[in-house]
Design brief:
The complex is a heterodimer of chains A (about 160) and B (about 325). Chain A is α/β, with parallel strands linked by helices and about 160 residues long. Chain A contains five helices and seven strands, in the order αβαβββαβαββα. Chain B contains eleven helices and no strands. The chains are: A alpha/beta (about 160), B mainly alpha (about 325).
Chain lengths: ~160, ~325
């Protein structure tokens, strides 16, 4: 415990200073959320590269939580679905049902090149399509995988902070 | 008259302050982990947003599911109005009995457990069964640890226990209080679902206790549950502070200045306890579920020792 205390004092604040919010990049439907966005992450068939970047976006260095975004455990608690990967045939129905379980107003973020246009998996036999073929998409984050900075910027577009 | 004003003031402070307390605890945890954190007001922003969202009753649920948040919030508000946090002269002093307060808290927990069962999902039922298991271990310890203090006063009325302690502060400093305080502290952590008993920010359904029951709640219902959980945390921390450090609480014949002072002291005491709890959580991991009964049995033993000691020391 003493060594942990010493480590805390030595390390101090790890989070990088908040960059200026990108202007004109906010999602209009997110206005009524008022600076609080609960996010349910769904892996619709991702290679887990995007998941590693999401984990670091919510980690100490980028700290997406300071802008009012928070990952939650249930789609019922969520305002936004964060979908990664191309939508595989096995996940298509599950993704639709999860979207129906989210109370209105609900948003969908397609994270990564696979979620936007199937990426390297385009045309593969197990892929049903991109996220926009299954659900209405409100925000997209390009990249394979996207950088944590890009993820945080997209989330700030939702929280408006 | 000051009794009525004090009672209203303490309900308002608990209702407004409990989300701020939760926000403060999250902020402290974030800072100790090297993060910045979302700020103390974030919990209020979350509640405001949840109230604007669509209310959903999942297919197949009935009135038990819809009533549970109302019962939970209602019992929390009643407990907030009777427990001597600001004044011992609450107009509802007759209800401020130890048994009534413990039963009201249990009623809220049972209502939520039934609501979790009503969804018929695997996780709802699992969370409910875990919550009731904990409840069966927690409630006797709450009763016993306050018994240890009520032996000295000869009453189970919380107002009278606190009044006696305010008038004779030195009597609080005794082995009995130490044993009872540790026991009540452990059950407060268990009852409010904090680490090491339950992790309020977990995403793993298999480790959840409280969160598993509320997985199906959405919108305003979820807001009510989160608000009520915060109020229960605030009230239990306030009760802990009131029983073992009763300085500042307005007693009979106190003027309006004493009530205002008592409010400030209450906010300070609860903030310090909450900050201590949040800081302590950083150093701990969640206990395995099968180890939790051992922890709670230990706290029950301490409470039993406190009662025995109060009998011999009285």
């Amino acid at each position: 415990m003493i060594s942990l205390l010493r480590k805390m004092r030595k390390t101090g604040r790890v989070a990088e200073p908040a960059p200026e919010p990108a202007a004109g990049d906010t999602v209009p439907a997110a206005a009524e959320l008022g600076g609080s966005v609960q996010i349910r992450h769904i892996d619709a068939g991702s290679c887990n590269g995007c998941e590693v970047e999401i984990a670091s976006a919510f980690g100490p260095v980028y700290d997406a939580e300071r802008y009012g975004a928070r990952l939650v455990a249930s789609p019922r608690h969520a305002d936004a679905l964060l979908v990664t990967g191309p939508v595989t045939r096995n996940m298509e129905v599950a993704l639709r049902r999860t979207h129906e379980a989210v109370p209105e107003p609900r948003l969908v973020i397609a994270l990564g090149d696979c979620a936007r246009d199937c990426g390297v998996f385009a045309g593969a036999y197990g892929v049903a399509g991109a996220v926009k073929d299954v659900l209405p998409v409100d925000a997209e984050v390009p990249g394979c995988p996207p950088k944590p900075e890009a993820i945080v910027e997209a989330l700030r577009g939702l929280t408006g902070r | 008259m000051t009794g009525l004003v004090g009672a209203v003031a303490q309900v308002v402070v608990v209702a407004v302050g409990s989300p701020l307390l939760v926000g403060l605890m999250r902020k402290i945890r974030a800072r100790l982990e090297g993060r910045v954190g979302a700020g103390v007001l974030q919990t209020w922003r979350d509640l405001r947003k949840l109230c604007r969202k669509e209310a959903i009753s999942p297919h197949g649920t009935g009135w038990v599911f819809r009533m549970a948040p109302l019962v939970l919030a209602g019992t929390a508000l009643v407990v907030a109005s009777v427990v001597p946090l600001v004044t011992t002269q609450s107009p509802m002093d007759g209800v401020a009995d130890l048994f009534a307060v413990a039963a009201l808290l249990a009623l809220g927990s049972v209502a939520l457990a039934l609501g979790g069962l009503d969804t018929g999902t695997a996780f709802g039922g699992m969370g409910a069964s875990r919550e009731v298991t904990l409840l069966a271990l927690v409630e006797p310890t709450i009763l016993l640890s306050v018994f240890a203090l009520s032996v000295r006063v000869g009453s189970t009325n919380l107002g009278e226990i606190v009044t006696a302690a305010v008038h004779d502060p030195m009597a609080v400093i005794s082995p009995v209080s130490l044993l009872a305080a540790v026991a009540l502290g452990v059950v407060t952590i268990a009852e409010t679902g904090r680490i090491p008993v339950d992790n309020p920010s977990t995403h793993l359904e298999l480790t959840m206790i409280h969160e598993a029951m509320v997985l199906e709640y959405a919108g305003p219902d979820l807001a009510l549950i989160e608000w009520a959980s915060g109020m229960r945390l605030f009230v239990l921390l306030g009760l802990l502070a009131g029983l073992f450090a009763p300085w500042g609480i307005a007693t009979a014949g106190a003027g309006p200045v004493a009530v205002v002072l008592a409010l400030v002291v209450l906010v300070f005491k609860v903030a310090v306890l909450g900050a201590g709890l949040a800081a302590g959580e950083v150093f701990m991991a969640k206990l395995r579920l099968f180890r939790i009964p051992e922890l709670l049995a230990g706290s029950f033993m301490l409470a039993l020792l406190a009662v025995a000691a109060s009998y011999f020391l009285a």
